[in-house]
Design goal:
Elements lengths: L7 E3 H8 L3 H9 L6 E3 L2 E5 H10 L3 H12 L1
Antiparallel strand pairs: 1-3, 2-3
Length: 72
């Protein structure tokens, strides 16, 4: 693995990092809201891009989690 391999996160790693559900992350990624790429059937996320997205959209995750709890 390269030195930067820790900067790419799986959906499970990102859910743990952000402390939110995988289903919320899937919805955000599939709708193009959260920066990520799909490799085959699997999503990958650059940690730096996610951190930047969080700075620019500080309330987005709480809105999505509220929607998820209301529907699920």
């Amino acid at each position: 693995m390269t030195e930067n391999s820790g900067n790419v996160l799986t959906i499970e790693e990102l859910a743990d990092y952000l402390k939110i559900s995988k289903s919320t992350l899937y919805k955000l990624a599939q709708n193009g809201v959260l920066p990520g790429i799909k490799v085959g059937r699997h999503w990958r996320f650059h940690k730096d891009a996610v951190d930047e997205w969080l700075k620019n959209h500080p309330n987005q995750l709480s809105k999505e989690e509220t929607k998820e709890k209301a529907h699920g």
